[in-house]
Amino acid sequence: MSRAVLLLVSSAVLSTGCIHLQRTDRLDEARAAYEKAQQGPAAESSPADLATAKKFLELAEKGLDTGDPKVVDDRATVAILKIQSAETLGRTHELAAERDRTLQAVTATRQTLLDQAQQKLALAHAELEREKAARNAAESRTSQSRAVLAQEALIRDLPEGTVISLPGGELFRQGHAELLPAGRDRLTQVADFLKTAERSARIQAQPPKKGSRKAAAALSGQRAERVRDFLVGEGVTAGQITADSPSKKPTRPLPNTPEFATGGAVDIVLEPAAATTGTKPRRP
Amino acid sequence: MRRWTAGALVAFGWACAGAPPLPADRLAQAEAEVRAAQEIGAERVPQARLHLQAARESIDGARDVNKDDPEAAARKLDIARAQAELANALAREQIARTETEQAHARLDALRTGAGSMLGPDSGQDLPGGAK
User: Fold this and answer.
1) What is the pLDDT of residues A218-238, one digit of tens each?
2) Nearest CA to CA, how far is A14 from chain B (Å)?
């Protein structure tokens, strides 16, 4: 009897020892982690790392043959860590790719901005060149016009501006404010000059040194108005030119020549360039 | 009598020798991975720091159990190495994330600057389209 019981117990112990280990919680966890990783970015971005992780999972599964759950769990732990590493490397590869794409966009954007800035600069440069050419042309016209005018009138650069003096006797009959034909011709040249100079001017008719001061003052006012009207009629902008009030005595010394002494003078005073344009005064 | 004495001496010597050494190659690999993770800055990334710490603890644990269970010690070294590798990977991921964010910030700054410098329509001409 006791022998039979002993045999039964022995066979039970032996059969228990031969029970094959099927699974552990940790191994299940590793299998699930691998399944999940296969669906994630690691499968595409880091397949080699995921394949390595699979080998460790297989090693853990082989651990079942030992029948020792500790062996299985330790190997499953390594497999899980390898799977997590593969997933992390997959995300890292994706981030690196995104970073590289963004840096390429940075480079391309910088180049585009540079191109746009260079285009703007080129346009501004061309505009500047056009303005410079136009200014040079205007200065050239003014200079030529002044040279022509200088043959017919006295031109002086004084602190108050550029003063063009014409003998009163050559513009008007003595004691009158009607323009003579020769005077009109001279004033036409003055008008040409004023149009190129583009500076505001005022007309001052200076009375002659001889004769009644009171009558001369009245006449000089009329003459200044007449000259202004003529110049405006020749195309000078009306707002550019004014006629000064009559004066009893000359506002500046008359040129020391006989024609100015006897007939007085008509002075056209161009304001200095800075007074009208706000830039540095320049010779017209 | 002599046989008994020799046997006793061998037994005594075995006991005095202590635990067998940890597997040198596995220990070296685990420690190398820990160092690599440290050098790349895993300590500064919270999640990586946790795995780095776990790797160190596994190496210590391997030393502790080596005397009684050398196979378990070897497995702990494998775990330590895997922990350190993960710490390393997490640190690299953080670096890549930071670099990507910086690249986006540079691109945004360029586009914002371009918008104010070149006018409201300039962004449409930039690579990647208007923001």
Assistant:
1) 888 888 999 999 999 999 999
2) 25
Number of domains in chain A: 2
Q: Tell me, yes or no, if the pTM score tops 0.80.
A: no
Mutation pick from B29, B78, B102, B116 vs chain A, by most beta carbons of A within 10 Å, is B78
pLDDT tens-digit series, residues A50-102: 999 999 999 999 999 999 999 999 999 999 999 999 999 999 999 999 999 99
| Rama region for A67: left / alpha / beta (φ>0; ψ in -120 to 50; rest) | left
Mutate to test the interface with B, among A92, A101, A119 (most CBs of B within 10 A): A92
Note whether A169 and A147 are same-domain residues.
no
Residue A265 pairs in a beta bridge with A167, A206
Residues of chain A with Cβ-Cβ distance to B106 below 8 Å are 102-103, 106
* Closest alpha carbon to B59 in B40, B33, B41: B33
Is B87 within 8 Å of chain A by CB? no
**A164-168, A257-261, B25-29: range with lowest mean pLDDT:** A257-261
Collapsed DSSP state (helix, strand, coil) of residue A152: coil
Tokens in use for B45? 């990334």
C-alpha distances in angstroms, A93 versus A42, A84, B42, B68?
Answer: 9, 14, 18, 43
Q: The domain that contains A261 carries what CATH number?
A: 3.30.1330.60
Domain hosting residue A162, numbered range: 153-277
In chain A, the residue whose alpha carbon lies closest to the alpha carbon of B86 is: A85
User: Residue B130: which residues within 8 A CB-CB, separation 6 or more?
Assistant: B123, B124
